[in-house]
Every structure is written in C-alpha cells, then in structure tokens.
Predict the structure of Urease-associated protein.
Amino acid sequence: MIVGNGDIEEGGAGIIDAADFVIRFNDCRSYGAGGSRTDAVAVCNTGRPAKAMLGSREWRTHPGVVSAGEIWSVRDPEKFAAMRAPLAVSHPELDDFCDDYTDEFSVYCADTGKKHVVIGKAVHESVDASLSAFSPSPYVVPSSGMIVIAEVLNTYAEAEVTLAGFGHVGWEWHPFAAERQLVDSYIAAGRLKRLGGKTLVSSSQGA
C-alpha cells in the first residue's frame, strides 16, 4: 500500500493497516486518518524538504517515522548533482533544490536501526520516459509518489499494489497531469489499484 499525503476515504484506515507493507511520505500527513501502520517512509532527500525534516525533532519523533523500518530516499544523488547546472539557468530560484542530504539520512538510519534505501537514477529516468508518452508540460522532476510507484512496480512485480491519498496535484514543477494519466494506464493494465482520496498540495520544492 502506497499512501500519499492526502485525504483518505472513510473506512480506508482499516484497509491500509491491514496491508502487508505500507509506505508513507515525508512528514506522514496521512498518519491517523489514513491508519497508523508504517513500514517505510519515502523522503525527499534533497533541498528544503530534506533540510526541514532532518532538522525537525517533530519529524524524528513522529510515530510513523519512529515505527518505520525503512527510509527510502527518492532522489538519486548523482542524478541531482547533474541537474544543478541546468537548473541554475532554467530555474535560478531553485538554487538549493539539488543540495544533497542522502548521507545525513544514512546517518539517521544507522543511529535508529533503520534500513536506508536510495532509489537509483535509472528509476527516475524510466519515469521520465514513461511520462513522455503523455506530452507533459515542462517540469523539473516527477513527484516522489511517482518515483515510489515505479520502484515498487519494478521491484515487486508480483505484488498487489494499492494507492491511497493520491490526487495528483501540488507543486507546480511536478508533471501531475501526466502522472495521473500514467497511473490510470497502470490501473487499466491491472498493475495498480486505487483506494481513493485526494492529495493535499505538496510542499515547497515538491513531494
């Protein structure tokens, strides 16, 4: 079960908590109304979101983060290092977007006994390629949700994967319209199911 940071339909919490494996995102806004089981937390490990989480006692002590056995860093350090120079030209306001905190998340995981998973750039690039079929407007990066969906489908091809709290809206530089179309194509092909709900607006520099 992949649970976005959005509204969960009534009765969804029990379904989520009954799943074999639950992935939440960043500050685990889905925790509570979206159940409590949390096996992994997928984080933006670059830029302002990463800096805010690592510097927040509230994040470190959040029950979802505490109970998770794994932290998934969704932004490959090599990929984002290569993006820094082009972004300085195209989006100078995102001057800290590629600041990498992967090592700091590794330290946090080592200190707390969690497994640290860094999703490789090949997944990011495969998502870009898949999104291109839907002619997205210019964008900076896919959302964390889309990266995690791709990682799960690639790694656990035989698993039944359900989404909750995904409405595909938020940060202006994520290609949400194309992501919705891509997810719908996976649902039509039987690769995904959707529990329902809609996503809240994602934070500065995306989710």
Summary: The first strand starts at residue 2 and ends at 3. The two ends are 18 Å apart (CA to CA). DSSP finds nine helices and seven strands in the chain.
